[in-house]
Structures are given as structure tokens and as C-alpha cells.
Amino acid sequence: MNQSYSTFFKVDQSPEEVFAAINNVRGWWSEEIEGTTDELGEFKHHYQDIHRCTIQITELVPGKKVVWHITDNYFNFVKDKSEWKDTDIVFEIARKDGKTEVRFTHVGLVPAYECYTVCTDSWGIYINGSLRDLITKGKGQPNQSEQIANKHGIENS
């Protein structure tokens, strides 16, 4: 059974609009992004000394799919430093019942992970809140890491 974290939502916007919003990573996840997020290649995300990761964009199928591969990752609040490394983040876009469904799966982010609670909470906020708002209202709320960290008692070292 696949225990990887997954969530989805439906919007009225077109698959093309959804695809463009997903690739505007600074618009919904974090403004602390280095590199290009809308073409195949690599970008980096960091939040203080709490979280850093290097992401390889491995698949971009306009209006259908975006796949990221985490090549490197660091959390200051977990013992197992391999968490997130070599996992994949998959965005699948499909037309369903006249709406566009966005399905987000972090393949490899499983309940056994020490970061599972924090990470799934974060993804829930960023995907179902910020990304959805970027698609439906034209504006997301990136950079919520501080509130999430505070809520979970995570401190900058």
C-alpha cells in the first residue's frame, strides 16, 4: 500500500492556468528560491537554517503534470538526515466533471518519517491554501514557514 502523502483539490480554472501557477513556485511556496522553476533543471529552496533542499525538475507536461526530484535536503529538526532525499513531488492535473483537479503527491514522504507531521501540515497549507489561492484568486501566500515552524516548536539553530 502506498502511504506517501497525497492531497487534491478542484478548481474552475483551466489545466493550463493550473500548470502555470504550479510552476510559479515563488508565488505559492517560498520567495527564497534560487533558480528557474518553470523549465527542466534545478532550483533550490531554503528557510533560515531550518530547511534547505535542492530540487531537480524532471518532468513538465503542459496542462498535465509536473514532477520534482529532491536531490538534496536538510532539516535541522530531524535525526535522520536522509529524509526527503531521493523522493519525488508529483503534481497531476486532470479535467474532471467540468473542473480541473490538482493532485499533489510527495512520493516517499511516509508516516515513518520524523518530519511527517510537520511536512504534511506544511504541504496541506501550501497546496490546499496558497497554491489553490494563487490559481483561483491570482495570489498565494508563500513564506508561511515561520508560522508553521512556530506552531510545531521548531527553532532556528
UniProtKB/TrEMBL annotation:
Q: Which Pfam families match?
A: AHSA1
Q: Which family does it belong to?
A: Belongs to the AHA1 family.
**InterPro entries attached here?**
ASHA1/2-like_C (IPR013538), START-like_dom_sf (IPR023393)
User: What Gene3D superfamilies would the database entry show?
Assistant: 3.30.530.20
Give the top-rank taxon of the lineage listed in the UniProt record for this protein.
Answer: Bacteria
Q: According to the UniProt record, where is the region Disordered?
A: 138-157
**Identification of the protein by name:** SRPBCC domain-containing protein
Domain Activator of Hsp90 ATPase homologue 1/2-like C-terminal spans what residues? Answer: 14-131
